[in-house]
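Exercise: predict the fold of this chain.
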Amino acid sequence: MAGAMIYGLIKQNVAPAESLIAAGPYQYELDALSEAYGIVSYLNNLEATQLADVVVLSVKPQTLDTVLAELKGKLNPTTLVLSIVAGATIKKISSGLDHQVIVRSMPNTPAQIGEGITVWMPSPQVSEEQIEMTRQILGALGDQVRVDDEDYLDMATALSGTGPAYVFLFMEAMVDAGVHLGFPRRIAEQLVTQTVRGSVNYFDHREDPVHLARLRNEVTSPAGTTAAALYYLEKAGFRTAISRAIWAAYERSRSLGKGVESRPPEHGNSNNS
C-alpha cells in the first residue's frame, strides 16, 4: 500500500518524487521503490522522519508498537501523522508517539490503480490546512470519505478495506463454476470480470438513484434461470454468510486496536477471526 501511495502522489502531481522518502527494514524493497519512483529511502525510521511535514504509518498492526517506540517524542509537534494501520486507534498512535496531530485512515487495495476508497478521521489538533492536505493525499488513491466517529474506521476496515477479498472470492467461485460447466478458464475469467465490471458501472452511472434490490429484480424473470439461482443462494445462506464475515472482520479490527489476539471462529460461530 505504501508503494501505491507513492505512485498515486507522483502520478496525480500531489508531491514530486524528490520530496518523498520511504523507510523500512528491508534494503531490497527500498531499492526497488527508489528505482521505480526516483525517491529517497532510509533503513532508519527516525532519520527518514526528521524533516517530514507528513509521516505515513504503513506497517502491519503487529509491527506498529516497535515503530511507535522508535519515534516516540521525536517528531516535530506540527508534523501530520497519517496512519493506514488496521485497527490502530488515534489514541493508541497518539500515546505511542507522544504526538497529537493524527489522521487515522483505511484505504483498500484498488488504491494501487487509483480506484480505491479511503475512510478517514482527523484528531482535533489537525489544522484545516492539514485536513486539505489529507484530502489531496488520499484523493490520489481514489475516492475519500471523512467521518466524525472513529468506530466508522473499524466498520470501513471490515466493509471496504477487506471488501476486495470478498469480491475476489466471489469471482473465483464464479470462474470455477464456469470451468465446471465446460468453459476454458480464460473465457470464464473474461465473462466473470466483465460481468462484475459492467454491473458496477451500470449501477454507478444511472441518473436516478436506485436500490440494488430493484436492479436485481430487473434481471429476475418469474420461474427463470436467475430466479432458480437466487433461490439456491438464499437457501444456502448467502446473505447471512456475507454479513457474518463482515462482522467477524469488524470485531477483529477492534481487537487489533486493543492489542488483543483472537482465535478464528469455530464452524457456525460468529466470534472473532
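Check your answer against the key: Residues 73 and 98 are 5 Å apart (CA to CA).
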